# Entry
Amino acid sequence: MKKIIGFSVLILFILVSCSHKDKPEVTEELKTALRSDTKTFMESLKSVLIKEIQTNGIVNAVSVCSDTAQILTNNYGVAKGIYIKRVSFKNRNPLNVPDDFESKVLKMFEEQFHKNQLKPESEYVELIEQNGVYKVKYMKPIFVQPECLNCHGTEEHISPQVKDLINKVYPNDKARGYQIGDLRGAVSIQKTL
Ligand code: HEC
# Structure
């Protein structure tokens, strides 16, 4: 009998200690990894864009952008085992609408931007728990650079052919009227810990 009780206690102990998962921490190491994922992703998107503009011109770059951006984003996420997206309140692609969490952070970024407090190094990190699974959610602002104006600038910056093509592919486009330095949106990453 004693043996049985002892054995049961041991089993119980093993079960409890196995099911108990410590709350992970958002370490500096993790933040550095997220920053680096964001940087590599944005650089690879930009290099594809610039290469296409240089070799085939701005009009072709629109077509490349509209397919390649989504494919490149999905492939990057799969390769790294993360959720990754570009989101914006003034989105061009309906797939890039922010969800509730992303909207909350984008609003915060916008407020900081209007107070001149948003910097290229600004970021937002939050640890969330869902059904015992911990996830880190990370967002970083995207700013408008000179080369973006060809497709996201004001009327005089976008050529008639580019306008025609954008109107055709994205009839509900909101991603125009920007100036250099404006907040365009954000990169959003989520990683299960
Ligand atoms: C050749 C035209 C072109 C140029 C130049 C361009 N974009 Fe875009 N951009 C697009 C198109 C087309 C989409 C929609 C494709 C997608 O992401 O699904 C898009 C989408 C985006 C999105 C995703 C949100 C949304 O509106 O759907 C962001 C963020 C963005 N662009 C930022 C930039 C930035 C920053 C630059 C400059 C570094 C830039 N773009 C330059 C054509 C362009």
